[in-house]
## 1
Amino acid sequence: MTKIEWTHRPGTKGESWNLIGGCTKVSPACDNCYALDMSWRIQNMEKRPDRYEDVCAKAVAPDVAGMEWVVRPSETLHWTGHVNLDYDALEAPYRWKAPRTVFVGSMADWLHPRVPTGFVVEMLAVMAACERHTFLCLTKRHERLPAIAELEGHVRDRWQKVPSVMSDWQWPLPNVWQGTTIENQEQADLRIPYLLQTPAAVRWVSVEPMLGAISIPPGYLKDGYYLKHGLDWVVIGGESGPNARRMEGQWAKDLIAQCDDAQVPVFVKQLSQHGFHYKLGRKIIKDLSQWQPELRRREWPK
Ligand code: SF4
């Protein structure tokens, strides 16, 4: 089970499927990486899955104040660069009986460069075999997305070896949604074109943490002559945590308006700790009743 709201799709249970440990930062969305803090905690637990071994570390570095080196050291938590694969965890979706909406890899990036293509094939084959579940893949490694098209033969070979498979082969996999993070305009301009070259039943973007106003060209949102299949879903969320960066309400409203024009469903996950309701201070604002009405949007693609 997971608390991530956008996995709580009606008729399904929300789940996260974690089978990769370790990552590296790649863009501004990663600055306050939640998975890094969580991985550090898990890494230091007595009993922990092996995939969290040696994935992060703390370095003691001196701070500089003005012209002097101060005595106050700061501990900086960072990824070590080790990325561990958990082959045993590949089996987990077979054990989930009721239909689930599954976030693939909430503690890492499933297309990190150190995740070999062979492991990506194994993951996709499990997704193909577990058709009762819907798998929501999300990456910041947009450059690897289009190559998913070339994996069909390999995924099909692995899928055919699963004895319980009953249905016909379909590609792209009808229960797999492909998504990328676009935290600001620069990442939107960079990553969306790669996503749109990717075969997927549903293509979605996660604008979380939302770090600036984002304008998505209408041609990327709408299906049309030039683009047979545009974006199908937009998730918006402000940053949480002690170092949360500001998200302006107007940025979310403007993006919702763009989606409405193109009839693309929108899911607003949470609002920034700052800027929406000053009386709430630094609390995460997850209670929809405290939001401005136009921001209360919790929709999924049909
Ligand atoms: S890609 Fe995700 S898990 Fe990896 S550093 Fe960035 S925010 Fe953290």
Note: The longest helix spans residues 249-262.
## 2
Amino acid sequence: MESFLVVVFLIISCASLAFSAGPCKVGATRKLPINQTFLSSFSLLAWSYEGDTGPNHWKGVCETGKRQSPIDIKSSDAVYNALGKFDLKNYDKKLDLNFTVANNGHGMVVSLAGGNYTVSGGGLVGSYKTVQFHLHWGPNNDEGSEHVVNGTAYPAEMHFVSCNTNYPNVTEALKYPDGLAVLGVFIKVEGDDNDAWSFLDFAANVTKYKSSVVVPASDFAVFNKMLPASKSDYYRYNGSLTTPTCNEVVTWTVFKDAVNISKRQIGLLRKLEKQDGKPLKENYRPPMPLNDRTVKASFNATSVATNPPPAAGSTTMPTGGASVSRMTAGLFLSMLLILFTLQ
Ligand SMILES: *[C@@H]1O[C@H](CO)[C@@H](O)[C@H](O)[C@H]1NC(C)=O
Ligand SMILES: *[C@@H]1O[C@H](CO)[C@@H](O)[C@H](O)[C@H]1NC(C)=O
Ligand SMILES: *[C@@H]1O[C@H](CO)[C@@H](O)[C@H](O)[C@H]1NC(C)=O
Ligand SMILES: *[C@@H]1O[C@H](CO)[C@@H](O)[C@H](O)[C@H]1NC(C)=O
Ligand SMILES: *[C@@H]1O[C@H](CO)[C@@H](O)[C@H](O)[C@H]1NC(C)=O
Ligand SMILES: *[C@@H]1O[C@H](CO)[C@@H](O)[C@H](O)[C@H]1NC(C)=O
Ligand SMILES: *[C@@H]1O[C@H](CO)[C@@H](O)[C@H](O)[C@H]1NC(C)=O
Ligand SMILES: *[C@@H]1O[C@H](CO)[C@@H](O)[C@H](O)[C@H]1NC(C)=O
Ligand SMILES: *[C@@H]1O[C@H](CO)[C@@H](O)[C@H](O)[C@H]1NC(C)=O
């Protein structure tokens, strides 16, 4: 019991760290059923990407949800929609800020406090503050991304997570279907080191479980350079966090074009350690059923041949509990989930 409490404490601490970003703001929208959130809260404490606690055993909404992420994007089924250009505020600037780079046991997470970067446009309703970005990868270049296109995965995928400014914080945003917007970037392993992704070198500073470093934003390339050059070609659908508690609150953007990183750079990620001290070789959730959802494409996806990538993957994010709200425990679990997911 004692160790359980310690774990919970650590999780909470982490979560606050991860989501300490500035307020999103307050608004009114219908809340999701509490029941769902409640159930999902409990899957947090012991989830992983393997064995008895792997994706096939995640509970709650992860198991029962009908708008789960990631998905296999069948480009020929994507419906063309002129969603428009993104407005990525400060994504072209190096601000006088510090970022926190952490290994949360589920991945590498870079947390941004202050809400200085915002995402709007691109068919999104409203404005979203970027709170963190994190990565998913696999043990080899045939797998690692969470989304897959036409059944083909990439070696890795990055997620920029942003919180709807209608809500005061991520914990609150997790209760609403329009709570988060995530920008997904496919990663290929090709060629020399990609300088725009030199922050991957910080993976070597957080090899150990729960380790973190504070790094000046000036040591990162501007975010625009981390994103694909073509930011106007992307897929859009309504989905979820790809980690417990799998809250169905994410408006997904998955860019059509991948970015390249080197073999050395992806190797840094594969050296991160899990809680048990062993390498975190993979941290992706496999594709979930599309069900009755529509995938939109901002471009004519039926006439475009996609780049050849690797195999299959997954994504994760924060979790939150709503019904538990009566008990503080609920909030608390949510925070934990969120932390882990972000990682
Ligand atoms: C909670 O969710 C489960 C699974 O979706 C459902 O079967 C059950 O009726 C729900 N309970 C309440 C009180 O809403
Ligand atoms: C960033 O961190 C450094 C070292 O901890 C500190 O001196 C500096 O004031 C911080 N900068 C900002 C903008 O918080
Ligand atoms: C970042 O956002 C915070 C909170 O809104 C603000 O106080 C700070 O001045 C901003 N920093 C920069 C460098 O824009
Ligand atoms: C998030 O916002 C809600 C509603 O304003 C507040 O009750 C809660 O304490 C906030 N949580 C955090 C972690 O700041
Ligand atoms: C990261 O590790 C490198 C190599 O050991 C070291 O030079 C650097 O100072 C570390 N960075 C931080 C932010 O701790
Ligand atoms: C996502 O859900 C919203 C609200 O129901 C809807 O307006 C929007 O069209 C959906 N997006 C997609 C891509 O289906
Ligand atoms: C990635 O590599 C491919 C193949 O070498 C190349 O065509 C493409 O231009 C590269 N992309 C970037 C962004 O460097
Ligand atoms: C997309 O491209 C295909 C093949 O060139 C063409 O048949 C189709 O009409 C185009 N669709 C739209 C919406 O432009
Ligand atoms: C996916 O497959 C469809 C046909 O099955 C093809 O038209 C489309 O170009 C493919 N897209 C990619 C990105 O490979």
Note: The first strand starts at residue 72 and ends at 73.
